[in-house]
Amino acid sequence: MIKLIDILKEIGDASSQPYKFEFYGSPYDEERYYGFETSHYPYSVHITNYEDNEIEISFFVPNEKDPDQERYDIETNRGDLFKIMATVVAIVKQDLKTHPEVDTLIFTPVKKQGAIDNSSRANLYLRYIKHNYPGAKVETNGDEIVVKIK
User: 3-state SS of the chain?
Assistant: First the structure.
């Protein structure tokens, strides 16, 4: 018999509710921007359209001087990891409602400061992908992860 605690350990805190997020711009732009705030930092989520029904997803704490650039000088995991991941998933699902033709998600997990590789973040992201898109096919291309959701 599968226990709820085992499921939560597998995918993280599945009960986490997303932060309230906002969309900036037109839903039909090639680049779409969303934002949300935790109790510690603001976050940006960028979704970029590519050809062949692909989107690239990135999320980060923006640099105050250049909001399109990530801040690398802070440690972001302050106990709200699952809520942040729930928010990114909610944003992607919202975006896909406007772009039902999209069948491929692309992302590149950034290496944690001081880490040898990006595998811990990649594994976390893949757990969320597999939970939310159970039939997805995953390929890696160097550090880039390509997920066929349809």
Answer: CCCHHHHHHHHCCCCCCCCCEEEECCCCCCEEEEEEECCCCEEEEEEEEECCCEEEEEEECECCCCCCCECCCCCCCCCCHHHHHHHHHHHHHHHHHHCCCCCEEEECCCCCCCCCCCHHHHHHHHHHHHHHCCCCEEEEECCEEEEECC
Q: pLDDT (tens digit, 9 = 90+) per residue, 59-89? A: 988 888 877 777 766 666 667 888 999 999 9
Tokens found for residue 85: 């991941």
What's the CA gap between 84 and 91, in Å, rounded?
11
| Residues recorded for the chain | 150
Q: Which domains does the chain have, with CATH numbers?
A: 4-148 (3.40.630)
Angstrom distance (rounded) from CA 95 to CA 34:
10
14-40: pLDDT as tens digits: 678 999 999 988 888 999 999 999 988
- Under 8 Å CB-to-CB from 21, ≥6 apart: which residues? 34, 35, 36, 45, 87, 90, 91
